[in-house]
Specification:
- By secondary structure, this protein is mainly alpha-helical.
- The protein is 60% helix and 1% strand.
- The protein has 2 domains: 2-215, no CATH class; 303-429.
Length: 430
């Protein structure tokens, strides 16, 4: 946890800078692919994902270390060869787990957040799942385990393999010549994120495009078919926590509503999007039929709300930076503290993204976050050991959360009045 946290302290500012540079480049070129609130939603999803990962809130059904100890048939001695094998093995595993996530209902929930943006940019690369509690990824690393690649090598290569998938989430890089035949390029990945019928469920590879060509899932980006991005059942929210569990919630409701016990069970293991006939007929769910003519999710957001949303996410980044940089120290104070800290971060993200959605519940969630902060400060006279480093930090945090409550309350009332006025106008015109 501590090592990964230290890595993220370097990676997070770098990713944020690249996201902002893409935004500025798009504005300069007259081709802005980064909507402000969509970007904040994507960054917020990244915050929840890395917080969950650093806290180790998922369990591998079988560990890679166990497979090496019990299943290896040989051992590769050369260190550099180990790293090469590890990288290729991770990419092979990544292809299959990615493909399965698209093909089965029960696994799609773990991946849907990554595709939920209706844009395609570097920020949406940060939309990663928090709903993975049991990891099956390790099973696909069997080739590396059989060759005896040490667990420590996998641990080093895995973050590098993950970070190497960031750059190709952009619309500003065209096809890349001969590299198109070897590695995954922005053109390949634009196809993967598209909901055009020609592009659906294609290009699962993460680094080497050879896997798609080998297993029959490759599709070239066509000039005459511009990609349209998102998911066919739109998320219709900026809240990444809601998005993470939308599909699972639909499956649970459908399983309860289905008359057949067979359907109640098999719905989880059927191809993505499958629903029992009786449930689909009685409880229809909106699905985009014409991908070229649909309205993107874009609730009204004043300049003030956008600025305040940026203040909230930047403050959240400061909160998690302290957590990642001091996780061992916080854990030594009390092993439960890191999980209370994680809860605080999640509640905060939920609060300000709920406000971005113009939901009245935002004020109550923000009040809960303030209550969590005040309760810890008042009972411990500290903020997870931060007083030693930043004297009087508790007074700063109390002040910030009081201001956050006031701003959230003001925006909530403002949105309520605006929505009432719009509803009245619609009734009058109707």
């Amino acid at each position: 946890m501590e090592t990964y946290g230290k890595i993220l302290l370097i990676a997070m500012p770098a990713f944020l800078l690249l996201v902002l540079l893409e935004k500025l480049y798009g504005v300069w070129k007259g081709f802005d692919t980064v909507r402000n609130m969509d970007m904040i939603s994507s960054l917020s999803s990244g915050i929840t994902n890395v917080t969950k990962d650093v806290l180790g809130m998922s369990v591998a059904i079988i560990s890679y270390g166990w497979m090496v100890d019990h299943l290896s048939v040989t051992k590769v001695e050369e260190s550099w060869v180990n790293f090469v094998i590890a990288f290729i093995a991770l990419d092979f595993a990544g292809y299959w787990i990615h493909r399965l996530a698209h093909e089965y209902n029960i696994l799609w929930n773990n991946h849907i957040v990554h595709h939920s943006s209706e844009e395609f940019n570097l920020a949406c690369a940060l939309r990663q799942s928090i709903s993975v509690f049991f990891r099956i990824f390790t099973f696909f690393l069997l080739p590396a385990a059989l060759l005896g690649v040490p667990e420590q090598v996998i641990a080093v290569v895995a973050p590098l393999h993950l970070f190497a998938q960031f750059w190709y989430h952009t619309r500003h890089i065209d096809k890349m010549g001969w590299l198109e035949h070897i590695i995954v390029t922005p053109s390949h990945h634009r196809v993967h994120h598209a909901i055009n019928p020609q592009y659906m469920d294609k290009n699962y590879a993460q680094i080497f495009i050879v896997w798609d060509k080998l297993f029959g899932t490759f599709q070239e980006e066509l000039k005459e078919v511009p990609p349209v991005y998102g998911i066919t059942r739109p998320a219709a929210t900026w809240n990444p926590i809601k998005i993470n569990f939308q599909h699972a919630w639909l499956l649970m409701r459908d399983a309860i509503r289905a008359k057949s016990w067979r359907d109640k069970i098999r719905i989880w293991f059927m191809p993505t999007g499958w629903r029992p006939e009786d449930v689909a007929a009685k409880y229809p769910v909106y699905k985009i039929e014409d991908v070229y003519h649909f309205e993107k999710y874009n609730p009204t957001a004043s300049a003030g709300l956008q600025i305040w949303s940026w203040v909230q996410i930047l403050s959240t980044l400061l909160y998690i930076s302290y957590l990642f940089g001091n996780i061992a120290y916080i854990n030594d104070l009390n092993p439960t503290y890191i999980y209370w800290y994680g809860l605080f971060v999640f509640v905060g993200v939920y609060a300000y993204t709920d406000l971005m959605d113009r939901n009245k519940s935002a004020i109550f969630i923000e009040a809960l976050r303030a209550l969590l902060a005040f309760a810890f400060i008042l009972t411990q006279s500290d903020w997870f050991g931060a007083e030693k480093l930043f004297p009087s930090i508790c007074y700063v945090l109390i002040g910030y959360h009081l201001i956050a409550l006031l701003f959230t309350g003001w925006f909530t009332v403002k949105h309520f009045k605006e929505d009432e006025k719009a509803a009245l106008l619609q009734r009058t015109l109707g």
